[in-house]
C-alpha cells in the first residue's frame, strides 16, 4: 500500500498541475499553443491512417468498400432546370407536358421515399475517411498491425487521459458559473455588476471550451461582432454552439426553463445577467415572446440576444427554415455562420437518439472540437419585406458563408408531420412545372 501511495501521489500532483496549467490561461483568454500542436499532430496521424487504409484496400480486394455519402447520387440543380433540360432534349423543344414526363416525376418520388432531404439532416454526417473513432466506422476490418496499434493508443489517450481531464475542466467551469453568478447577483444594479457578470460568464465558457479541446477560428470579429441592443442569429448544430459563441463575447440567452441541473444553471445565470427564460406556456404565446424580446433590445445597454431560429439541431450539413418570430421583433440582426470540422469528432446532437449525458460523453471522448465561426455584416429588414422573407434572406447568407445546403423545410418535421400549407406549396410547384410555367424558359 505504501508503494501504491508513493506512485499515486506524484501522478495526482501531475494531474492537478495539468488542470491548473489549463485553467489559468483559459480564464484570461490566453492560449499556450498546446491545443494547436495537438490538432496538427492529429491531422498528420489521420492523413497517414487514410493513406494506409487506401493502400490496404488495394492489397485486400475482398475488403468492403466504404459507404458513400448518401444512398442516391443526386444531380445538382432544381427540378425546373432538370425538366427544362429534359424537354430541350426532345426533337422539338416543346415546353408542354408529355406523357413521358410522368417517368421523371416517378423517379423523383422514389428518390424522396428512399432518401428525402429532411430525414438525413437529423443523422450524423457521413465521413469520407475513417478518423480512428470506433463509432464513426461501420465497416472497418483489420488492415495492418500498425493501424490497429494506433487505434488502440487512441482509445487509451481519449478515455484514460483526455476524458478525466475534460470532466474536471467542465466541472470547474460549471461550478464557477453557478458560484460566480450567484455572488454577483447580490450586488446592486450598476455598471460594475454588469462588468463582473460578463467576466464570470466569459471565464466559465472559456474553461468549458478548453474542456472540449476546442479550437475555434473566428473570422471578421472586429468589424461584425454583435453589438448591444441587437439580435445574434446562427445556425444550430449542438448545445455546444452556446459555448463556442460565448467564448468570444457575452450574450443574453433565450430559451425555455428546465428542471434539474440545467434549471439550476438557468436560475443562477439570470441573477447576474438579463437572460430571457420562458415557461412552457409562455413559449406558445408568440405575442408574449415578441413583447419580452422587444423590451430587451429596446435597452441599448443590454447584451445582444443569442437566438437559433431553426429551433432544433441540424447535422452540420444544412441550414433549415428560420422561424420568423425572431425577425418580427425589429432591431439589427447580426448573422453568424458556424461550421464544425467533422474529422475530429461529430458535434451534432441527435436529441431523439441520445440523452444530453450520453451526448456529452461521446463529445468528450472524441479527438477534439474544431470549428470555424464567421461574423457576417449586420442586416436589417428592407422596405416591402415581411418577416418570413427577411428570415430567408438571412438564412441564405449564413448557408452560403458556411458552405451549407440552404433548405426551406421546417426543422420541426423532425418530430411532427408536414403542415398542409407546405404540401400545398409543393403541389403548386409541381403543377407549374407540368404546365411549363415557374421560370421554365422557352426558346
The number of helical runs is 14
Q: How would you classify the helix and strand content by structural class?
A: alpha/beta
Nearest-integer average pLDDT: 79
Give the uncertain stretches in residue-range form. Answer: 438-443
General shape? flat
| Helix-strand pattern | HHHHHHEHEHEHEHHEEEHEHEH
Kindly provide the radius of gyration, computed on alpha-carbon positions and rounded to a whole number of angstroms: 25 Å
- Cα distance spanning the termini: 90 Å
**What is the makeup of the main sheet?**
7 strands, mixed
Beta-strand percent range: 5-15%
Helix amount, in percent? 40-55%
Count of distinct strands: 9
- Enumerate the strands of the largest sheet in spatial order, edge to edge or round the barrel: 1-8-7-2-5-3-4
Amino acid at each position: 500500500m505504501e508503494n501504491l501511495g508513493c506512485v499515486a501521489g506524484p501522478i495526482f500532483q501531475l494531474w492537478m498541475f495539468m488542470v491548473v496549467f489549463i485553467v489559468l490561461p483559459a480564464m484570461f483568454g490566453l492560449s499556450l499553443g498546446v491545443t494547436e500542436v495537438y490538432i496538427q499532430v492529429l491531422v498528420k496521424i489521420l492523413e497517414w491512417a487514410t493513406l494506409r487504409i487506401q493502400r490496404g484496400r488495394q492489397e485486400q480486394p475482398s475488403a468492403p468498400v466504404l459507404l458513400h455519402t448518401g444512398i442516391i447520387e443526386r444531380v445538382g440543380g432544381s427540378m425546373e432546370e432538370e425538366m427544362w433540360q429534359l424537354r430541350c432534349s426532345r426533337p422539338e423543344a416543346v415546353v408542354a407536358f408529355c406523357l413521358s414526363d410522368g417517368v421523371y416525376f416517378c423517379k423523383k418520388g422514389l428518390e424522396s421515399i428512399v432518401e428525402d432531404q429532411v430525414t438525413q439532416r437529423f443523422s450524423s454526417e457521413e465521413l469520407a475517411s475513417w478518423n480512428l473513432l470506433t463509432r464513426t466506422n461501420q465497416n472497418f476490418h483489420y488492415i495492418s498491425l500498425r493501424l490497429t496499434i494506433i487505434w488502440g493508443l487512441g482509445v487509451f489517450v481519449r478515455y484514460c487521459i483526455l476524458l478525466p481531464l475534460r470532466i474536471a475542466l467542465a466541472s470547474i467551469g460549471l461550478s464557477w458559473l453557478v458560484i460566480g453568478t450567484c455572488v454577483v447577483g447580490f450586488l446592486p444594479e450598476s455598471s460594475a455588476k454588469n462588468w463582473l457578470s460578463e467576466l464570470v460568464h466569459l471565464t466559465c465558457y472559456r474553461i468549458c471550451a478548453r474542456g472540449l479541446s476546442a479550437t475555434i477560428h473566428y473570422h471578421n470579429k472586429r468589424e461584425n461582432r454583435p453589438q448591444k441592443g441587437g439580435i445574434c442569429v446562427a445556425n444550430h448544430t449542438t448545445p455546444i454552439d452556446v459555448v463556442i459563441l460565448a467564448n468570444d463575447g457575452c450574450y443574453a440567452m433565450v430559451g425555455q426553463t428546465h428542471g434539474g441541473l440545467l434549471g439550476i444553471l438557468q436560475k443562477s445565470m439570470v441573477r447576474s445577467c438579463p437572460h430571457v427564460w420562458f415557461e412552457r406556456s409562455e413559449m406558445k404565446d408568440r405575442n408574449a415572446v415578441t413583447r419580452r424580446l422587444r423590451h430587451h433590445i429596446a435597452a441599448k445597454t443590454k447584451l445582444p440576444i443569442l437566438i437559433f431560429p431553426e429551433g432544433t439541431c441540424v447535422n452540420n450539413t444544412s441550414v433549415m427554415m428560420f422561424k420568423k418570430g425572431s425577425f418580427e421583433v425589429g432591431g439589427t440582426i447580426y448573422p453568424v455562420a458556424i461550421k464544425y470540422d467533422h474529422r475530429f469528432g461529430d458535434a451534432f446532437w441527435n436529441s431523439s437518439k441520445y440523452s444530453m449525458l450520453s451526448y456529452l460523453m461521446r463529445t468528450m471522448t472524441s479527438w477534439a472540437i474544431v470549428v470555424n465561426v464567421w461574423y457576417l455584416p449586420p442586416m436589417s429588414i428592407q422596405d416591402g419585406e415581411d418577416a418570413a422573407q427577411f428570415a430567408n434572406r438571412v438564412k441564405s447568407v449564413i448557408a452560403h458563408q458556411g458552405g451549407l445546403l440552404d433548405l426551406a423545410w421546417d426543422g420541426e418535421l423532425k418530430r411532427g408531420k408536414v403542415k398542409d400549407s407546405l404540401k400545398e406549396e409543393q403541389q403548386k410547384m409541381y403543377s407549374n412545372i407540368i404546365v411549363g410555367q415557374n421560370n421554365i424558359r422557352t426558346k
